[in-house]
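sanity check this record:

:::
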Amino acid sequence: MALKLWDLAGAEDDRRFSPYCWRAKLALAHKGLAAETIPWRFTEQDAIAFSGQDKVPVLIDGDKEIHDSWAIACHLEDEYPVNPLFGSPQARSLSFGFKIWVEATLPGPINRAIMPDLFAALHDRDKAYFRASREKRFGRTLEEVGAEPEKAVQELRGALLPVRKQLVEEPFVCGAHPGFADYILFGAFQWARAVSPRRLLEPDDPVFAWRERLLDLYDGLARKARGYPVWA
C-alpha cells in the first residue's frame, strides 16, 4: 500500500521547509520506505481536513491516518520494526525528552535569525496568514522578530552546547548510528537551510560536521532538497 505524506511547501512546490515534516521524511527513509510527498501550504487546510486538525505532517499508511511527527515516528517504529528509530523503550522515552528540549530551545533563536528570509520564501497566498498568526504568537511584528539576526545566531550556538559536547565523543546524537533524535535536531537546521542563506554554524563546530553527515544520509536526501548551500 502506497504511503502519502502531506509536506509544507514554500513559494515553489519543492521548497519544503517544515522541521517536523523533515523529521517524518527522514524517519521514512531510515526505514527504507518510499512515500509520495504532497506539497501543502498553510492556507490549504481543507486538503487535510480528514485528519481532524490543521497541521502537517500528515501520513496516510493504508487505512490509517497519522499526524504529528512524533506520532508518525512511533507508528513507523511499531508497524515496520526493521531499522529501528529508537531501539528500545528507554531510548524512545529519552528521544521524547530530547524532542521537548529541542522544541523549547531552538525555534526561538532560529526564527529570529531567519525571519525575513522565511517570510520571503512563503507562497504569496500564505503570507497574510503567516504574518497574522506569527505576530499574534510572538506579540510583535515579523520585522521586530528578525531585527537582530546575528545576536540570534550567537544565542543558538550557545544553546547547542550540550549537543556539541556529545558530538565531540560520538558521530550522532544517538551514538554510532543515526536515530530519530538526530532527525528531531536536524529538522531545525533543514528548516533554516531551506529558506535562508544565513550561516548558523562555524565549520569547526562539531555540530557542523554532524549536520554534514545528516545531509548526506539516504543518498543525500536532505542535501538534494531545494535550499541554500551550507557554506564552509
Observations:
- The longest strand covers residues 3-8.
- The chain has ten helices and four strands.
- Residues 91-220 form a domain with the Glutathione S-transferase Yfyf (Class Pi); Chain A, domain 2 fold (CATH 1.20.1050.10).
- The radius of gyration is 17 Å.
